[in-house]
Amino acid sequence: MESIQVKKGDVLYLALEDTPRRIQRRIRELGFNNPEELAGLDIMFEIPRQDQGGLDVIRAWLEEHPDARLVVIDTLSRFRTLKTKAAEIYQADNDTVAEIKKIADEHRVAMVIVHHTKKAKEADFINDASGSTGLTGAADSILALQRKRGENDAMLLITGRDVEERTLAFTVNGVQWELKGDAAQVMIREEEQAILDYLEENGVSSPKDIHKAVGGNFSSLKSRLMYMRNKALIRKTKRGAYSLPLVSKNHAESS
Hints:
The chain has helices at residues 20-29, 54-64, 89-107, 134-138, 183-202, 207-214, 218-230, 249-254; strands spanning 10-15, 41-44, 68-74, 110-114, 141-146, 153-160, 166-173, 176-182, 235-236, 242-243. By secondary structure, the chain is α/β, with parallel strands linked by helices.
């Protein structure tokens, strides 16, 4: 499991869609049993809406916590100003995020705004956010979490003005999310392992047979097989099939 090192600091979590009992259960499931382990974390379950004093509450908390590193608004729909006119939706969305971003810039703190995505996915994940493009247009960075219902694997797509565009792979274990690494590299490792597992079970196999078992793009699979052959992970037979490397007699006797 990989990890990303971060600087420690105070955190404000606005759990606006949760109850104290649910959050307490999740904290225990994460393995935190000692209150001292949660020092620096403040959780609020209710806060005025953005135009009714909510921004002032966040500002006051940040002023009381000069070492703060993060504020999480979960979710935006429970915090933002209620929209009225459909004709002004883009400007309203843009202003909503811009006002929150202003506080983040003033206090040099990360502000994570949790927001729902559309059911129908767009070609560009930036447009998946529910609402208009005014929301994502005002944010410095956009992170989209993608996971199919019932599956443990997930991807976090990242883009923004001052961050490297990348996709990270995660696996879900209960309430814990484990970072597996760069999604492209993880997919390559998993594809190679699937090929090795298939060859170990079935012996000498043609690229077409391997493709039927592993799936994916056939041209990409053939390139992956050639790469694995060059790395001596597998061997190619005279008939164009593949198998695991042969174990020499001396090596077999010594092992």
